[in-house]
Write a structure and sequence with these properties.
The complex is a heterodimer of chains A (145) and B (559). Chain A has 3 helices and 6 strands, in the order H-H-E-E-E-H-E-E-E. Chain A has 145 residues and is of the alpha+beta class. Chain A folds into 2 domains: 2-47, no CATH class; 51-143, no CATH class. In chain A, 20% of the residues are buried. Chain B folds into 3 domains: 20-237, Rhodopsin 7-helix transmembrane proteins (Rhopdopsin 7-helix transmembrane proteins); 316-397, Helix Hairpins (Orthogonal Bundle); 404-556, Heat Shock Protein 90 (2-Layer Sandwich), CATH 3.30.565. Classes of the chains: A alpha+beta (145), B alpha+beta (559).
Chain lengths: 145, 559
């Protein structure tokens, strides 16, 4: 009886190994895909462990801001700075939408991985603060708190 | 986190503020690839090449699907989850293409070492897909991750694409020089298709991604054009399938092509302005394509049915032909045996009749002479018939022997005419010999066979001429190095219908039976076969019944 069971187990194991050997290319790719997809899912969906960059309001009187036209003829302009921070952090502060979230407009004092980028000459057209207009052409400030 | 500057897509990826070419380049091409790949796979799912082609089309369709999500979705986490697939899927397409071309060119599975190399090439792409090396962040303002991509990672998977182009080219070129003419054409079509697809897909997507990464372009339409390489590849695959594979696949491929065409036309609705006129025009185009497609598929089906019937008939015909050949061989053997058995007693009969006629067994009573003459003539005819049967039997079995020597054909013709002149005179006919040659009239032929041909043709002329003359005219053509012997009579002539089948076995002029002229209908067949075996020919000419006839024996001159 034992020998029969052992023979059956061996047969199943042998067939299984033969099947794996024959299709190892396909199985390897499927395995790689599953592992990579799981890791992606865990990092980006579960942890939200990535940076987000978004536009925040900027006062042209105190900072060198990025400028964007708000209409086709460019009668009205919009001044902004770029804030980069971790997605999971901003999600905790503001939820999915940052449009009406004041906490999103600045970095907290003890917050790591948060930066505000102001305009410089290489970035394009800037709106310079009045006090520095004469002696500085462009300003680039990276504030870290 | 959502991109608040953009609107949520309708039905997962439909938004109004995106370039219309996005949908037209993605959806129809993707469906075309899926349809062709799907039909080829299900036509023969066990074949490895079919599986791999299906895998390539499936991966490509997945890539376009993910690309559409990237263009339209506004959720940063979802977008970043799918972003690494822009590297993983092209890398898989590249190695599957190499594997596919190996199987296509060698008609066997790739060696384990090759598969291991391919796996080793793609593994880093998968291992680093979720790390900052692949993508580290997201720009909510632009709603993309181009600014957070690693150039090295992009360069690596694009390099795999470049390797696939070189590797597949190597397989195709190597096989091209050692394969048959028919397979060379297949290699050429396959090579054009896959190389065009790989080059456009990898180069354009990389260039578009690179330009967006360095900020030179925003929302570039450039990458859309990279997808059309797949459409070209699929069309060439369809050509390969219909032209070089079995007809079943041909029908499937044509159906797939029509379905794809309908989708392509139908897809216009997604990017046309939805004005009444444009919708009506698209509708008309759709209906027209459907009708033409239906007619095309029906005609292909009909053609296939006819082809199947013809193949079945040809198969049956071949069997019947084999059976006929066997019967013909058995008949020739029977005739040969029977003729041999007849000839010996006939020789004895003719010999004894001749001895009786000559009075070797005592005086022959007057009333018996006529009967003996009839027996003698019938015996002679029977001997000639048996010779004809034996000759036909030998010709058909390929056992006729020719003893080729240089002989003077002009002299031979003249001697035979002299021998037969008395016989002609008995019939009240004039047998003449004429010659007009500048050569010596020497040919390389079997003397016995030419003798037989002369006897046959002169006797024929005498038999079928009731009054007038029979002329044997020898002349040559030095330019063509030929000698012609013409047998011209003023006899009953030959109708055009009879003329066409005169040299067939048992072929006799209709008038011959009514004129009570004896013959087997084998003489001319045997004579022409003999002439042809000696590199010559016999032709027959007549202006019609009652207008005489002319037979021409032609043989190559030696000197």
């Amino acid at each position: 009886m034992t020998s029969v069971i052992l023979a059956v187990v061996f047969l199943i194991y042998y067939n299984y190994m033969t099947f794996l050997r024959r299709n190892f290319f396909l199985f390897s790719i499927i395995l790689l895909l599953i592992l990579a997809s799981s890791a992606n899912y865990y990092r980006f969906i579960v942890l939200g462990d990535f940076f987000v960059t978004y536009e925040a309001e900027c006062d042209p009187e105190t900072n060198s801001c990025f400028v964007r036209c708000d209409d086709d003829d460019c009668f009205e302009t919009y001044n902004y700075s770029l804030i980069t921070r971790k997605a999971n952090k901003i999600k905790k502060l503001c939820g999915e939408n940052i449009t009406d979230c004041n906490s999103a407009l600045s970095c907290k004092i003890d917050e790591i991985n948060c930066s505000i980028e102001y305009c410089n000459a290489a970035s394009g057209e800037c709106s310079l603060p009045d006090t520095e207009q004469d002696d500085i052409d462009t300003i680039s400030v990276l504030e870290k708190f | 986190m959502i991109c608040h500057y953009y609107t949520e897509p309708l039905y997962f990826f439909f938004t109004s503020d995106l370039p219309p070419l996005l949908y037209y380049s993605h959806i129809p091409v993707s469906i075309l690839a899926l349809v062709v790949g799907f039909f080829i796979y299900f036509n023969n799912p066990k074949r490895l090449a079919n599986k791999l082609l299906f895998a390539i089309t499936l991966l490509f369709s997945n890539w376009t699907f993910i690309n559409l999500i990237a263009w339209t979705n506004i959720h940063s986490d979802i977008l970043l989850f799918v972003w690494p697939y822009f590297a993983m899927i092209p890398a898989l397409i590249a190695i599957c293409s190499i594997y596919f071309i190996y199987v296509f060119t060698n008609d066997k599975d790739a060696p384990v070492s090759t598969k291991l190399i391919l796996l080793a090439l793609v593994t880093p792409v998968f291992i680093f897909a979720h790390t900052d090396l692949s993508v580290s962040g997201f720009n909510i303002s632009d709603c993309d991750a181009f600014g957070f991509e690693s150039l090295w990672y992009n360069a690596y998977y694009t390099a795999i694409g470049a390797i696939s182009v070189l590797w597949t080219s190597y397989y195709l070129i190597k096989k091209y020089f050692t394969s048959t003419k028919a397979f060379k054409k297949q290699i050429l079509l396959m090579g054009l298709g896959i190389e065009f697809f790989l080059i456009t897909f990898f180069s354009i997507t990389f260039i578009a991604s690179y330009l967006a990464n360095v900020g030179l372009v925003v929302d570039s339409d450039l990458e859309f054009y990279g997808l059309y390489g797949m459409a070209v590849f699929m069309v060439l695959i369809s050509v390969l399938v219909t032209r070089y594979d079995t007809f079943n696949v041909g029908l499937i491929a044509s159906q797939a092509l029509i379905v794809s065409l309908l989708i392509l036309v139908g897809a216009q609705v997604t990017y046309l302005n939805t004005t009444k006129i444009s919708l009506i025009l698209t509708g008309i185009a759709f209906v027209l394509t459907a009708v033409i497609g239906f007619i095309l598929i029906r005609s292909v089906k009909k053609e296939i049915k006819q082809k199947q019937e013809i193949e079945k008939l040809a198969g049956n015909l071949e069997k019947v032909n084999d059976r006929l050949r066997l019967l013909d061989k058995q008949k020739s053997e029977f005739v040969s045996i029977a003729s041999h058995q007849l000839r010996s007693p006939l020789t004895a009969i003719r010999g004894y009749v001749s001895l009786i006629e000559e009075g070797n067994f005592g005086p022959v009573p007057e009333q018996m002479k006529d009967a003996l003459q009839r027996v003698s003539e019938s015996g002679k005819f029977m001997a000639v018939s048996i010779d004809d049967f034996l000759n036909v039997s030998r010709i058909e079995s390929g056992n006729m022997k020719y003893d080729l020597k240089d002989i003077n054909l002009r002299e031979q013709a003249e001697h035979i005419v002299e021998d037969l002149r008395a016989d002609a005179m008995k019939r009240g006919l004039l047998l003449m010999f004429k010659t007009d040659i500048t050569s010596k009239g020497v040919v390389n032929a079997d003397f016995g066979k030419t003798q037989q041909i002369f006897h046959n043709l002169i006797n024929n002329a005498l038999k079928y001429t009731l009054k007038g003359t029979v002329t044997v005219f020898v002349h040559d053509d030095r330019a063509k190095n030929l000698i012609h012997v013409e047998f011209i009579d003023t006899g009953i002539g030959i109708s055009p219908d009879t003329l066409q089948k005169l040299f067939g076995k048992f072929a006799r002029a209709k008038i011959a039976s009514s004129a009570n002229i004896m013959g087997t209908g084998l003489g001319l067949f045997v004579a022409r076969e003999m002439a042809r075996a000696m590199k010559g020919d016999i032709t027959a000419h007549s202006e019609g019944e009652g207008k005489g006839s002319r037979f021409v024996l032609t043989l190559p001159l030696v000197m």
